[in-house]
């Protein structure tokens, strides 16, 4: 089997050699060849019959071993596979605390009014909307690892590097829980992985989610209850009016954007049959996948259409679908 075929079964794009039977088989055939050769020289019965069989076995094992070495050394195969599957190898690394501190200061300077007018009661709804737009919940398997370590779940927010100040502000409002990582030049991750921080977030978001991610939150609650013998209640899907809290504000910062299109006036010409008047068009767009892919959800429970319909009704606008997105 070539390295290209084996790499399909790897969970990563790195060039790691897969386990091979040929080295041990070559060692066995060499031992067999040596033993049968010595025995045949001393006139042992049937030893001469084993000698050609051992030689054939040695040649065969070396042939298959060299075949795999050559296929693994063909960089074109691996690079072609990575290119065709659109892999980008990026290594996450921690963000320097000084960079986080400076981003937080810049955020306070640029949004001073909003910062001092924050309503503590609205922050959980804002955080819920942000999580449903730019975040996900990661759950490990139950039990402990072979090193006897307990693996905790993680709540992860993913955003553009320009929003580092915003997430530093969120971290400060959450009491400093969580850590930051950068992935490439443009992406940051705000990761909450300690149980104290996770329980704080779960209690804060309970009953405030509006999308199928609420199922994932309940999976997290059940995981915590089983693993740590707690009795946290499951989260009910929030169906309150979008204008009654700050959920839509957080969801917009995650998945929405404003657009301004300016068209200059153009008179009639030989190539233009109609004149174009100067105009400006304004747009507010919220994008979402048509379905939210969660392992814990049934397909009919993962549709994002209900929440998009609620947003459309709230804004008195229409829903457009394209390539599996709203």
Would you summarize the structure shown here?
This protein is of the alpha+beta class. It is built from twelve helices and seven strands.
Number of strand segments? 7
Q: Major beta sheet, specifics?
A: 5 strands, antiparallel
Which class of secondary structure composition applies to the elements? alpha+beta
Total number of distinct structural domains: 2
Task: Walk me through what this model shows.
Helix 2 packs antiparallel against helix 3 (47-73) and helix 5 (97-110) crosses helix 8 (164-173). Helices cover 46% and strands 13% of the residues. It contains 12 helices and 7 strands. It folds into 2 domains: 3-84, Helix Hairpins, CATH 1.10.287; 92-240, Homing endonucleases (Endonuclease I-creI), CATH 3.10.28.10. The protein is of the alpha+beta class. 21% of the residues are buried.
Write a concise keyword list for the protein shown above:
single chain; about 325 residues; alpha+beta; Helix Hairpins; Endonuclease I-creI; 2 domains; 5-stranded antiparallel beta sheet; two-stranded antiparallel ribbon; 12 helices; elongated
């Amino acid at each position: 089997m070539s390295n290209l075929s084996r790499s399909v079964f790897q969970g990563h794009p790195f060039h790691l050699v897969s386990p091979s039977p040929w080295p041990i088989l070559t060692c066995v055939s060499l031992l067999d060849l040596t033993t049968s050769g010595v025995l045949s020289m001393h006139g042992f019965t049937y030893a001469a019959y084993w000698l050609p069989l051992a030689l054939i076995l040695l040649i065969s094992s070396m042939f298959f071993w060299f075949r795999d070495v050559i296929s693994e050394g063909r960089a074109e195969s691996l690079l072609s596979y990575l290119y065709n599957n659109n892999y980008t190898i990026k290594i996450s690394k921690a963000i320097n605390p000084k960079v986080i501190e400076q981003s937080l200061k810049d955020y306070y300077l640029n949004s001073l009014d909003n910062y001092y007018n924050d309503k503590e009661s609205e922050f959980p709804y804002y955080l819920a909307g942000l999580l449903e737009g730019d975040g996900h919940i990661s759950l490990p398997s139950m039990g402990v690892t072979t090193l006897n370590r307990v693996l905790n779940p993680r709540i992860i927010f993913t955003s553009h590097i320009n929003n580092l100040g915003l997430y530093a502000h969120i971290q400060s409002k959450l009491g400093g829980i969580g850590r930051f990582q950068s992935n490439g030049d443009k992406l940051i991750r705000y990761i909450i992985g300690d149980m104290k921080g996770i329980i704080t977030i779960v209690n804060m978001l309970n009953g405030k989610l509006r999308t199928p991610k609420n199922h994932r939150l309940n999976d997290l609650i059940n995981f915590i209850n089983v693993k740590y013998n707690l009795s946290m209640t499951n989260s009910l899907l929030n169906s309150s009016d979008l204008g009654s809290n700050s959920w839509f504000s957080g969801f917009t910062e995650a998945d929405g954007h404003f657009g301004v299109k300016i068209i200059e006036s153009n008179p009639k010409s030989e190539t233009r049959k109609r004149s174009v008047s100067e105009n400006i068009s304004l747009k507010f767009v919220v994008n979402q996948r048509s379905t939210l892919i969660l392992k814990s959800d049934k397909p009919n429970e993962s549709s994002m259409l209900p929440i998009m319909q609620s947003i459309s009704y709230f804004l008195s606008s229409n829903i457009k679908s394209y390539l599996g997105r709203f």
